[in-house]
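In response to reviewer comment 3 from the previous cycle, which asked for concrete evidence that the modeling workflow produces usable outputs, we include below a single protein chain processed end to end. The sequence was submitted unchanged, and the resulting structure tokens are shown without manual editing.
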Amino acid sequence: MSVAQDLPFLSSTLGADACSLGEVAAAIKATGSWERFLEVRMGAGPTVRIDATGPTSENYLTTVTWGSQRGEGRMRSISAALVLVDKLACVFYEIRRDADKGDVV
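The workflow returned the following structure tokens.
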């Protein structure tokens, strides 16, 4: 997985090392989850989280929360969970960005 290529939103806000597959896998192995706040606009941004679910840790619950917006999904690998978190965080950012322009009701 190329972090900069496959995770453009996460890598631009956190840096490539903070969202690398190894970093996330180590955090999940140690605590059962990985969570980060992504500051994208003047102290605001989504909180992204990946939790291992199930006894074998082969299923992952991904959540992205920004204010009242929340998105989640279940994935079968950490790399797929990271891609989902990246895409959801980006969509939430775009919704807020476009709402500020008056493009979203």
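Strands lie at 33-37, 47-53, 59-66, 69-75. We consider this sufficient to address the reviewer's concern, and the full set will be provided in the supplementary archive.
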